Amino acid sequence: MFIDDTIAAIATAAGEAGIGIVRISGSKAIEIIDDIFRANNNKKIYEDQRKLTYGYIFDFDNNEKIDEVLAVYMKAPHTYTKEDIVEINCHGGMIPVKRILQLVLRKGARLAEPGEFTKRAFLNGRIDLAQAEAVMDLISAKTEKGFEVAFDQLEGSLSKRVEEMRKEVLELLAHIEVSIDFSEEDVDEVTLDYLLEKSIKLEKSMTKLLSTSDTGKILREGLSTVIVGKPNVGKSSLLNSLLREARAIVTEVPGTTRDVIEEQLNIQGIPIKLIDTAGIRETEDIVEKIGVGKSKELFNKADLVIFMLDASRELTNEDLQIIEMIKDKKIIVLINKTDLPNKLDIAKICHLIGERSIIKTSLKEEVGLDELENVLVNMVYKGEVKSNSNLMIANVRHKDALERALNSLKEGIEAIRRQMPMDFIEVDYKNVWDYLGEITGDTVGEDLIDHIFANFCIGK
Ligand code: GDP
Ligand code: ZN
Question: Residue 279: helix, strand or coil by DSSP?
Fold first, then answer.
């Protein structure tokens, strides 16, 4: 692909701020800045590459001084995009950045599409696709751990692992091809044994990498959790306690329906999207209020349901109704109000919900929250020691490609075991090679690439 136009965008977030940055990338960047910038030391900006130069942006067509700025020129190819880049640090706020951007566009740059700077870094070969995707994950990371995973991916940890695997596939393919060329006689046992042994090893490491994808997805996208229970069991109290513990109320986004509120929590590094059915009128039955279909939809979307019961009241029909609706979900059962005399038949609950975690709490006396957090964290890390590695499959696209690669490898192994013809076996290994290559972007089409970068923010 040949890129010859020059792009520009505001690289900082919208709104009032200390500084705003307008970024320009492409062969015309230097010409454009030369046209609109006057340095206080009267030097040309390209004389002092990679140094911030103090001066003013001018619209010389009207002789208008636009803003006081620091500008920097970075010469290709050692830049973010591998092209010439100019960055103008002006005053933050909508007006200065907008006016400077407009001027830059008038001088011949084109407004960059979302993610286009990073896309150029990818197309110009500075980073691969997994690394490019990590850039956006870094920006949107909700917890430190999520950030660390994305950062390692940007540094190439995932790409390196995938490349190692592809190298092994290539080596196997070479053996297979040699065998095809000598296919007069039967393929010798030694070659088959060798292929089998190597393939089983590869299968193991691919399976291991794939096993990180559940945790990875949660760290990247958050664990969506629904709190459910009949009126007065303590849903709102739980929400408030968790919010207080987590300290990090990031946002309060109104959900898709009026009745549902979403809160973002950070529990020991795990981003949790708490979907709060407490927003549904307390006095009414949740199922009646939002309808069976809708509540099912709500539960279906959830990764986890926290089901609350009241220790001071007997089981009611409403409890049973809820159990019926959530019985196939991942559930944590909270028996709340344990400070009050018990009237709940716990044995019966165990019977109804099977092998599920049951936690006893008294939110009033702040008992049981630590245990809830621990159960949650263990669920996400599946009991493995947490944070031992940041190498994870966090992206569904990567997971899907790795899954297909693993399936093809399994088919290849099966074909070897059955002593199928070598050119038959070869097809499977070529698929493994291709599918793995999708992760790093080696074997993906333009459409997919466009689609990925379209989800980036402007100016990155
Ligand atoms: P919701 O309707 O499920 O959201 O329940 P709320 O969180 O609004 O709680 C209903 C009532 O139960 C409130 O008066 C709370 O103070 C009280 N409550 C919540 N948790 C406990 C608890 O652990 N023990 C006792 N005794 N009362 C609680
Ligand atoms: Zn409530």
Answer: helix
pLDDT at site 287: 54
Q: Is residue 233 within 6 Å of ligand 1 at its C-beta? A: yes
If you take atom 2 of ligand 1, which residue's CA is the nearest one? 232
Cα atoms found within 13 Å of the Cα of residue 294, Cβ hemisphere only: 13
Domain boundaries, the chain: 7-112, 132-212+393-454, 224-381
Q: Is the CB of 29 under 6 A from ligand 1?
A: no
Count of C-beta atoms within a 10 Å radius of residue 256 = 12
Q: What is the token pair recorded at 235?
A: 């849903």
- Best mutation site among 237, 242, 337 for ligand 1 pocket (most ligand atoms within 8 Å of CB): 237
Structure tokens given for 399: 């997971």
Q: Can you tell me the ipTM of this complex?
A: 0.98
Q: Specify the CATH architecture of the domain 7-112.
A: 2-Layer Sandwich (3.30)
Strands (E) located in 110-206? 110-111
Question: Is the CATH number 3.40.50.2300 carried by domain 132-212+393-454?
Answer: no
Q: How many helices (H) and strands (E) does the chain have?
A: 17, 14
Give the three-state DSSP class for 212.
coil
Q: Ligand 1, residue 362: give the atom nearest the CA.
A: 23
Atom of ligand 1 nearest to the CA of 240: 7
Question: DSSP 3-state helix, strand, coil percentages of the chain (rounded to 5)?
Answer: 50, 20, 35
- State whether the beta carbon of 321 lies less than 6 angstroms from ligand 1: no
CB of 235 shorter than 6 A to ligand 1: yes
Contact indicator for 361, 334 with CB cutoff of 8 Å: yes
- H or E segment and range at residue 37: strand 37-39
pLDDT in tens, 251-292: 444 333 345 567 888 888 889 988 766 444 444 555 555 555
* Ligand 1 and 318: CB distance under 6 A: no
CA 133 to chain centre: 8
CATH of domain 224-381: 3.40.50.300
- State residue 257's pLDDT score: 37
Q: Assign 82 a pLDDT band (cuts: 50, 70, 90).
A: very high
Distances 83 to 111, 185, 449 between C-alpha atoms, Å: 16, 55, 20
Residue among 60, 33, 56 at smallest CA distance from 45: 33
CA-nearest residue for atom 15, ligand 1, is: 234
Give the model's pLDDT for residue 186: 64
Please tell me the number of the ligand nearest to residue 311's CA. Answer: 1
337 CA to centre of ligand 1 in angstroms: 7
* Residue 210 CB burial class (10 angstroms; 0-12, 13-18, ≥19): middle
